[in-house]
Design brief:
alpha/beta; seven-stranded mixed beta sheet; four-stranded mixed beta sheet; 13 strands
Length: 590
């Protein structure tokens, strides 16, 4: 089954940083901080200057995330330079009464020598030895003096880096510093901010903010056990106003968004326009989960106002979207148009919310694909892809029909991952019944979408899938004969599978976009694989079976894959053999 989404747990489940994440982080640092950072001093090479600015930007990002200051204030907090005593940035968070001191390393964590410098710098600062710091520190000296003179201020030493973790001795030195400074009061703490944490900060910037809404319910009733819930009638006008104010955010925990002008949705909108009083009788109603539901003062048995925090409609997105469509067309909705709504209070970390979502949606025509929205990995991937401005649409919506090059749907992502997984079984499943790769109860879904898959790698796989598919589809169109056209039409997934088996290095590159060299290599390779596959398949089956049957049948496809890989290996072996030396010329006989 899917693991239930708990946004607060996402950072804790992330894998150690990989090169693709580092590329994403660098991209954000350059975009966000380079325009406002002062130019680095000294006559360094352009490569050194770039590395210096990235390190300063990383320190600024840590300051911003730890203290909540804006970009300009974070850049102003950077004091890195000669005689900085290991302190690259600092800021005093007055409301929280915390003084943050940051050491930043673009690569691996500080070694013991570098870390001891940071520890000693903290000691100097707390002892007022400001004379040991360079002139950049002077502009922030007032903040530091104010912090040190304020009772109850805690100093937080932050070590931020993107590479290998802090060593055992470095951690021991920081622990010893904490023991030394906290002898009489809780004065100091330190924080290990590794690359996964930094990437998590950037991904979480794209998390949906919890909604707090106020609703008026008519003819309402409430229960407290086993779970707190209220139900009653809500006017369609209220729903339209909510959608106008919040849009798709209303459905953050739903399995799909509003799908637009489908037949059922058109019927709902038509009822709102022409027979508003009958909407209640013709509609299944809405269900919303909330982290907290509080009746407001003044409620009567007939009418009550409720404040719902963490509000999300988990069943009824089509109703709300259709009601809004009627509202937008008419400019208003009759107060007689009402639907039933159920508000259920759920624990943010429990499974009840997802269970309600699944149970309340099984009465409609729902695909297993839609229930993938309940998987924690899908939301994590959406946030990671948003870092590089890629829209990942894992909940079906009316926007899915828009073929934007900077967006990808769950359906396309699953196909790309299956085809380029290197598993012939997966591509056969995708060809025979594509729903299997979306079904959490099937063997393939968990191997495709898991905690090891990063958003950056997913995007690279999708781009390779798109480019290779386009090459093969163009080849199909160019063929005059029906046999080869059918081969190209039905062998695409199979050929991409072979590509993955032989081109792992190209697939695993950290770059988030394909270079021209990559595209040329993909084009050349897939066309070559297609020709070898056609030759082997033609010799094996001799046109006794259609290509659709061959490539969606494990009995045919698995042995064929082994034969093609064997033919390629034999060709590779021959190409590696040295050319035979020419026969020496025989001397002419006298």
């Amino acid at each position: 089954m899917y693991r239930i989404l708990d946004s607060s747990k996402l950072v804790g489940t992330r894998m150690p940083i990989d090169q693709a994440w580092r590329v994403q982080i660098h991209q954000v640092l350059r975009t966000r901080y380079f325009p406002v950072l002062p130019p680095p001093p000294g006559n360094h090479s352009e490569q050194e200057k770039d590395k210096n600015r990235l390190s300063h930007s990383l320190a600024a990002l840590a300051i911003s995330k730890m203290s909540g200051v804006d970009t300009a204030a974070a850049v102003n907090a950077v004091v890195d330079g000669g005689d900085d005593n290991g302190i690259d940035a600092l800021v005093y968070d007055r409301p929280a009464r915390k003084l943050f001191l940051v050491q930043s390393k673009l690569g691996n964590a500080p070694d013991q020598r570098e870390n001891l410098k940071f520890c000693n710098g903290i000691r100097y600062l707390l002892n007022g030895r400001f004379d040991l710091f360079h002139e950049r520190f002077e502009r922030l000296r007032g903040e530091v003096e104010e912090a040190l003179a304020t009772d109850g201020v805690q100093v937080i030493g932050c070590v931020v880096y993107l590479g290998d973790p802090l060593g055992r001795h470095a951690r021991q030195d920081l622990d010893e510093l904490a023991h030394e400074l906290n002898e009489f009061s809780d004065r100091f703490a330190w924080s290990d901010l590794n690359g996964a944490t930094v990437h998590g900060w950037l991904a979480d910037e794209h998390a949906a903010k919890p909604l707090t809404v106020e609703l008026t319910l008519n003819r309402w009733y409430g229960i407290d056990r086993p779970h707190r819930a209220f139900y009653g009638l809500v006017t369609a006008r209220q729903l339209a106003e909510l959608y106008q104010a919040h849009g798709k955010t209303l459905f953050e925990k739903n399995i799909r968004f509003y799908l637009g002008n489908e037949s059922v949705n058109s019927a709902i909108a038509d009822t709102v326009r022409t027979r508003p009083a009958e909407l209640f009788y013709l509609n299944n109603g809405l269900t919303a989960v909330c982290s907290s539901i509080r009746p407001l003062p003044g409620a009567t048995n007939d009418t009550g106002r409720f404040l719902a925090e963490g509000f999300s409609i988990v069943n009824g997105a089509q109703t709300v979207g259709s009601v809004y469509a009627a509202f937008a067309a008419l400019g208003d909705i009759s107060p007689a148009a009402m639907v039933m709504i159920t508000l259920i209070e759920v624990d943010a970390v429990g499974e009840l919310g997802a269970q309600i979502t699944r149970a309340r949606n099984t009465q409609n025509a729902i695909k297993e694909l839609h229930f993938a929205a309940l998987d924690v990995q899908q939301e994590r991937l959406r946030r990671e892809l948003a870092i590089i401005d890629i829209a990942y649409r894992y909940r079906p919506s009316q926007e899915d029909a828009q073929d934007a090059p900077s967006s990808v749907t769950l359906e396309e992502a699953a196909l790309a991952l299956a085809c380029l997984s290197g598993s012939t079984e997966a591509v056969v499943a995708a060809k025979a019944k594509v729903g299997r790769i979306h079904d959490a109860n099937d063997e393939f879904y968990g191997t495709l979408f898991n905690a090891a898959l990063s958003g950056a790698h997913l995007w690279r796989v999708v781009q390779i899938y798109r480019h290779a598919s386009e090459i093969l589809m163009q080849s199909e169109k160019a063929e005059a004969g029906a046999q080869r056209r059918m081969f190209y039409r039905h062998s695409r997934f199979f050929i991409l599978n072979l590509f993955a088996k032989r081109n792992g290095a190209l697939l695993k590159k950290a770059e988030t976009s394909l270079s021209d060299v990559d595209r040329n290599e993909i084009s050349r390779t897939v066309l070559d694989l297609a020709e070898v596959t056609f030759t082997v398949a033609d010799g094996t089956f001799q046109q006794s079976r259609g290509y659709l049957a061959i490539f969606r049948n494990s009995t045919d496809a698995l042995p064929l894959a082994r034969r093609v890989m064997g033919a390629l290996a034999e060709r590779d072996r021959k190409e590696r053999l040295p050319e035979a030396a020419p026969e020496p010329e025989q001397p002419n006989q006298p």
